[in-house]
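Predict fold of Helix-turn-helix domain-containing protein; 311 aa.
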Amino acid sequence: MPTRVHLPAAVPPLALERLHSLVENRTVFALEAFELNIFETHRPALRVPLRLEGLALTTMLRGKKVMHLPGRPAFDYLPGESVVVGEDELMEIDFPDACLCQPTQCLAVAIAPDSIRQTIDLLNEHYPRLEAHQPWALAGPEHAHLTNTPELTSTLERLVAVSRTTDAAKDVLAGFTLQELLVRLMQTQARQLLFQDYTKHLTTHRFAAVVQYIKQHLAEPLPVEKLSAVACMSKATFFRLFKREFGLTPVEYIVRERLAEAKRLLCHPLATVAEVCLRAGFNNLSYFQALFKKCEGLTPGAYKKQHTPLR
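Predicted 3D structure, encoded as tokens:
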């Protein structure tokens, strides 16, 4: 499930600086390592041009956009999603539903190239990825459109908060938060690359075989010892590198996969909650129900009622 960034309540009105298009209102927070922009749109428009200096991480907060980026098909851009826009890349944006009562709101962090390079160099020197032929780097355009992870969302919210503070050490704090943001972004891209397209990387990345094994054995016990053996490494090394690569532990990933499978199974008209619990790999019904409600905001039974097709 995509996670949305929530702006602090004290964010000022978004009408401090108008773009030349007179369509988007823009608030800017300029710091040493990056520029944070908040855009708000109050009326429908088509093909509004926008270009930011440096690479930009944009995140939808409210409403809907249709993004047109060079060399890519147009796509809907919704809350809980982010898009990485290349250095000085021209965006053309449609606002099909914007209005005063339901404005479109977007966050954009334009990052200086030196900040990106320093963070990537630091990671590759001191915290290398599992496969030496795949060093830390921002992924290409094919992985620019992302579903936000909770970790990425949390870091973005803290970046907004530190950008607005009057603390004397503001730029230092912002620099550390930006480094974390870049790490979270690369981990999010790594998840998208491997978790969704693992079959393409079975011969080049040991974690692809682990992802395949997990997906094929969700209903069975999945001890870390077994998964580390699939990856051909010790348990401690496997656990440490998996979390470094993807920003979550193997156990957290298994739980997320099992919850996703449970949601899929609950949509079947004849499946009971108890059956879904076992088929998704949970061996305790009470634990499954409590975990499902914590993560999804409603019980498995309520989810089933909402999502089971009418017969």
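The CA atoms of residues 266 and 304 lie 5 Å apart.
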